[in-house]
Write a structure and sequence with these properties.
about 290 residues, alpha+beta, four-stranded mixed β-sheet, two-stranded antiparallel ribbon, globular, disordered N terminus, disordered C terminus
C-alpha cells in the first residue's frame, strides 16, 4: 500500500443485545433508523421495519434520495458519524441505526440491523427468520447479491465485449431460473410463509426492473420477463402495504441518474412490472410479462 492510499474507513457493527449487559439493550424508543429509500439496503430495512410494526418502538428518519454531501454522504448524518469516530474520514452514508441516549451510531451494517430488528424488537411480528432457516436465507442472499445483482450490472456495463455480456446474462438468467423453480412450488421463496428471504428477493427484482433494465438490450429484458411465477410473485408482494409504501420510484430514478455514467439501451422501453399503477391501499398491481 502506498503512502498516499486513503485511510481505512471505520465500520460500525455493534449489536442490540438481550439485556443491559450488552451495552445496547432492546429498549423501545431508544434507537432510531436513518434510511434513504432509494438505497436497496435501506429499502430492505424499511420493509422489515413495517412488517414488524416497529413504527412506534423504533422511529425512522427518511433521508433524501440522493446524498447531499460532496463526498457522497449525507450532511444530516455527519454529526452522528463524528460523534462516533473522532475525525471520521469517510462519507456519512445510510443505513444508520443510532442510539438516542448517547448520540452515537450503533451500526451501519444492514444484515446486522435486519437481524436485530427481527430478533430483538420483532416478537409480535411475522417470523422473518424462522428457526433453522438462517442458512437458507443466507443462500438466497448470496444468490441475489453475487449472482443476480452482480451479473445484471456486468450485463449492462458499457464497453464490454459481446462474449462477456452474454456470459453475464447467462449467469443472471440462471439465478432467476433458480427463483422461478422455488416459486413454482410455493407462495414464497422458502415455502408458504413470508421470510427475510422474500424481502431481499423483492428488493432485488425492483432493482433489476427500475435500474439494471435501463442498460440491457431488449432481447435480454424479454428473456428476463420469461419467469411468470417470479414476476407474479413480485406483483403480489408489491400489493402489500409494507412493501408498496416504501417504494420511491422517483427517488430510485434520481439516485440512479446521479451516479450512473452508462448509456440507455433498448431494454429501457420494455417494462416488466408496471409499478406506477398501484398505491399502498390499492390491493392490486399490474404485471406485464412481454414476449418477443
Amino acid at each position: 500500500m502506498s503512502a498516499t492510499s486513503p485511510k481505512a474507513v471505520p465500520s460500525f457493527r455493534s449489536r442490540i443485545g438481550r439485556d443491559a449487559r450488552s451495552g445496547y439493550p432492546a429498549v423501545p424508543h431508544r434507537y432510531r433508523l436513518h434510511l434513504a429509500l432509494s438505497c436497496p439496503r435501506c429499502l430492505r430495512i424499511a420493509i422489515t421495519h413495517s412488517l414488524l410494526g416497529l413504527e412506534d418502538a423504533l422511529p425512522m428518519t427518511l433521508l433524501p434520495a440522493v446524498p447531499d454531501a460532496p463526498d457522497g454522504g449525507y450532511l444530516a448524518l455527519r454529526p452522528l458519524y463524528e460523534a462516533s469516530s473522532h475525525q471520521y474520514p469517510g462519507p456519512a452514508v445510510a443505513p444508520v441505526l443510532s442510539d438516542g441516549w448517547t448520540g452515537r451510531i450503533v451500526s451501519t451494517h444492514a444484515p446486522d440491523i435486519l437481524h436485530d430488528l427481527t430478533r430483538r424488537f420483532g416478537a409480535r411480528g411475522p417470523r422473518l427468520y424462522p428457526d433453522g432457516a438462517d442458512a437458507q436465507i443466507e443462500t438466497i442472499g448470496r444468490l441475489c447479491e453475487q449472482v443476480i445483482g452482480a451479473a445484471a450490472q456486468r450485463a449492462g456495463r458499457s464497453g464490454i465485449d459481446a462474449a462477456a455480456r452474454g456470459t453475464a446474462l447467462t449467469t443472471l438468467l440462471r439465478g432467476l431460473d433458480a427463483l422461478e423453480r422455488r416459486l413454482s412450488c410455493g407462495q414464497h421463496v422458502l415455502g408458504e410463509e413470508l421470510t427475510a428471504a422474500d424481502v431481499q428477493v423483492w428488493v432485488t427484482l425492483v432493482q433489476l426492473d427500475t435500474v439494471h433494465r435501463w442498460h440491457l438490450d431488449a432481447e435480454a429484458v424479454y428473456r428476463i420477463t420469461d419467469h411468470p411465477h417470479l414476476w407474479s410473485y413480485a406483483g403480489r408482494l408489491a400489493a402489500h402495504p409494507a412493501f408498496a409504501s416504501h417504494l420511491d420510484l422517483d427517488g430510485i430514478a434520481r439516485r440512479h441518474h446521479a451516479h450512473c455514467r452508462g448509456t440507455e439501451a433498448a431494454g429501457a422501453a420494455v417494462r416488466i412490472v408496471d409499478w406506477v399503477r398501484y398505491a399502498p391501499r390499492s390491493g392490486t398491481v399490474t404485471v406485464t410479462a412481454m414476449k418477443p
